[in-house]
Known about the structure:
This protein has 224 residues and is an alpha+beta fold. The protein has helices at residues 10-32, 172-184, 207-221; strands spanning 48-55, 64-77, 85-94, 98-106, 114-124, 133-142, 150-151, 154-160, 163-169, 187-194, 199-205. 31% of the residues are buried.
Amino acid sequence: xxxxxxxxxxxxxxxxxxxxxxxLALLASIAIHPGRVHAAADxxxxxxxxxxxxxxxxxxxxxxxxxxSVVWHTDTIKSAGAPDETIVLADVDIPKRFKMTLTLxxxxxxALPASHLxxxxxxxxxxxxxxxxxxxxxxxxxxxxxxxxxxxAGISARVTDNMFMIGLSNGQADRQRNLQALKERPWFDIAIxxxxxxxxxxxxxxxxxxxxxxxxxxxxxxxN
Length: 224
């Protein structure tokens, strides 16, 4: 038993081990399939939509709001001996803070306990006061920029500073709810914590290009 598990009840130890096993399985998947062998953007319209960072500020109960942009598109993973696989990408730019790439791919390995994998890679700009992104608590979908979100069912795992994975639940009911939310909700909320333990919410709009990218991917996956 590890130091972390010492003193926990048996059910909590089982849940902890389950989360660790899930994270390790996703890491193994990344190692085997590191991403795009050849990425060729399709004809999806690449018009920018809004990205908004809401930062915690101890001197202001309303916090700080920083405007940025996001460009959505689809790409194709080409692997020898395997069918081409469509993925969804979002390139987010929050000036004076960071750039972030979001990748959504379908999980085809039935041995993995996830239906889809979301990868988040942050690149902080020089001088970013938060230094790095230390944690991503999860992703919510919502109807408006400042609306209340509903969490996607899944588990978040930290790969390294600035890189995270979220495996979406493969349970039938969870999978259906997640797919409906990904298809219909126009905004995403990503809850993040920087290296100074300051919390922020990154709100990302789908816009017309995002709607088109998700429609293309879901159709390619037979999940529309």
